[in-house]
Amino acid sequence: MLGIKVEEREVHFSEVSDFVECGLCEQLRLSALARVVDHGREIACTAEEMRPVIRKLYDTLTGIQLEEYRLLRMDIYEIK
Hints:
The protein has 80 residues and is an alpha+beta fold.
């Protein structure tokens, strides 16, 4: 649907610093990550802003949410 190549595999924490893009998805939220801190050890991701793939995922998810919220508001009627 989005035309994004996906590779599903186990990721070792030591690989994070080599990622071109790094994001966190949690309960319908997507955030770009600039750094990860693990028990005092800091790993910087190479990008400190949303790059193309994370941006595309973020925009798509946000668009879905906004449309759903808009549709939900349309379905609310005041009953007197």
